[in-house]
Amino acid sequence: MFSCCAPKPNPDLQEDKAPCCGDGGDRDSGKFDWLLWGSLIAVVAGCIGHWFFHDSLPKQAADFSHGVYSLMNKMWWGLALGILAVGLLSWVPREWVAAVLGKPGSFSGILRAMGAGLILDLCNHGILLVAMKLYERGASYGQTLAFLIASPWNSLSLTLILFALIGAKWTIIFLVLSGLIAVVTGLIVEGLVRLGKIPKNPNHVELPEGFQLGHEVKSKLAELRFNSGAIGRLIKSSIGESRMILRWIFFGTVLAAMIRAFVPPETFGEWFGPTGTGVLLTLTAATVIEVCSEGSSPIAADLVTRAAAPGNGFAFLMAGAATDYTEIMALKETTKSWKMTFILPLLTLPQVVVIAWALNYWAGTV
Known about the structure:
Blueprint: H1 11-15, H2 24-28, H3 34-52, H4 59-89, H5 94-101, H6 107-119, H7 124-136, H8 141-150, H9 156-166, H10 168-194, H11 213-222, H12 230-260, H13 268-271, H14 276-289, H15 293-305, H16 310-322, H17 325-335, H18 338-365
């Protein structure tokens, strides 16, 4: 086991060395990851272009380089914390995760997962890394989706930004409604698991009789030992466990920057008004353009204030959980099932659309 956490190996953890996305074979097989490295090179090139050649580049190239830099500048800290959290979670016993999140299939378990998503202060890309690792550590699929749906923009930093941009009323309404969607979706998924429509998480573990989390944590802390190689092993483990998700994050960043070079965000308020068509177009645009949570807030705020379409603003924020292609591909890599993957948009999109229409209607009548 990780030497800074305990002096003796833990057999249970030695068995759990499989990466969160099931890509351990690919990492060790010697195959070159074209998607990861190609996307990373494009990201680095975009940042270099913005730093040193922005004024001399053609307009579209300058917009692309600025888009890459802007996205990475907003989400680097979330990615870094997410990668670190993934490495730390690799060494957390599955029993601990089960104890914290509660019993799978229960209402309290879904509430705990939703609450964890609401309070964890990471951007949507950092949250994605953590969510996939929670599933690998034994969280049920319903809990994983509840955590993921509640998380993409509900960080402390972004909540404060939204308070400033759209006011306390709409911020609180958005918070409550996103939590509601997370709970409803999680409960439906748990029901599908009970009916046998989708499989249980194969990583799930039952808590031993008389298991006490506080006692276990104190016991591990008492064994805590640090050495000179501990941090290096943690960093190596964190990066290795995160590679499968990072490839899609970098790819999404490149694609988003390319599209943003041709679709200026300020046109959203003009194109996507408070109509049914506007809501659907907003979801489509948010899916394709994909911005980090902090990057989505100014656009969503513009939809609320300038376009007088609070439902569209809510839909734009929630599209990070409902239709984001980075999350779709990450779920596919983690669950190895397209059926389980598309449960996310199939269950969340109808709720988002109905709530968005209702918000637009309510805003137009008050």
